Amino acid sequence: MNQGRRYVPVAPDKPAPPAQRNLFDVPSPGNVGNVFEVRPSDVAGGTLQAFGTPVRVLDVRGPDRMGGTIDVSLQQETILDVGNSPPDESKVPIEGPLVGIVEFAAGAGLASFEFDIPSPVSFPGKVVVADFDAGFSYLRDLPRSLRNNGILLQLPAASLRVYVRNDARVPYIIGADAAGTPVAINPLGLTQPAKVRVHATYGQRPVQSSLTRSYPICFFTHVLNDPDSTMPVGPHSLIRIGIPAYAKRVFFPRTPRDTTALSVSIQMNQLNQASRDPYLIPAYSDGPIELQPFDTLLSISTPDANPPIDIMQVVFELGI
Questions:
Q1: Please, which of 194, 208, 312, 314 could form a disulfide with 95 given CB 3.0 to 4.6 Å?
Q2: What is the CATH number of domain 232-320?
Q3: What does the DSSP assignment read for 189-233?
């Protein structure tokens, strides 16, 4: 009697998964495009705790051989509804301001920098048309659109992480009113989360976006005991501020602009303590001053006859 073995069919081997061809072949869920809420800090005041906690909004990783030029889109969309009318010129309720932080790398090398995420711009909505000499005004309706704004980055990398921080509770550089109370960058003290939409993919763009990193100095309203007002920059003031990575020029927007001037000295790196001769930013001018890679510190002062500067920022344009 034949007692041979019973035949058991053997399942064919599962085909091996296809080899990853680029950084976006097998991304983690939601990792190359998603929507996030970025909350400000719960702490207000003049300490580092007033800065928001960075939220990671993008994480693209892969082997070095798959590195390439990666395009990143970051867009802020307002959550607060301002209606279909022109915004208040003095105080527009905008969440933020938001600061982006990028880390891009290949191999053991890693570079990083901070940049501004532009606040949402007002959609056209209703437009005021007025002629004061003729004594008439009226409203003109325009199509309403999504109120947003954003930036496009283009970076060479095999891995890339992007974070967003909500700095609504951070004080101005001159961060106190007459009573010494810190005043937040967002003078309305908004604590709502900001809405950020992000995505990334490979790409090549002939023109890079203009990236900035802004530092608000003061916000003075001329209203007695206004809790949303800082002290102005007066005569004999001195402000020293470090120059961020990749900065190539700096601007000084301020109010009033037609009657105020600035004197700006630039200190070079620590191996050479020399300073470049002071630059004069005259009335009616925001600058810019061209920066060199070895520049490390700005010293900003006001001439003796200068009237007070009520509103001022230092805006660095990044060369990246």
A1: 194
A2: 2.60.120
A3: ---PPEEEEEEEEE---SS---EEEEEEEEE----TT-TT----B
For 265-278, the DSSP string reads EEEE-TT---EEEE
Please, how many CA atoms are within 13 Å of residue 16, restricted to the half-sphere of its CB? Answer: 3
User: CB of 194 within 8 A of CB of 74?
Assistant: no
Q: What is the pLDDT of residues 119-152, one digit of tens each?
A: 887 666 677 888 888 888 887 777 767 778 899 9
Tell me phi and psi for residue 37, to 5 degrees. -105, 130
Domain boundaries of the chain, sorted by first residue: 27-125+132-211, 232-320
Q: What is the pTM of this model?
A: 0.84
Q: Which residues of 1-37 are buried (b: 16+ CB within 10 A; e: fewer)?
A: eeeeeeeeeeeeeeeeeeeeeebbeeeeeeebeeebe
Q: Which of 2-11, 102-111, 142-151, 164-173 has the lowest mean pLDDT?
A: 2-11
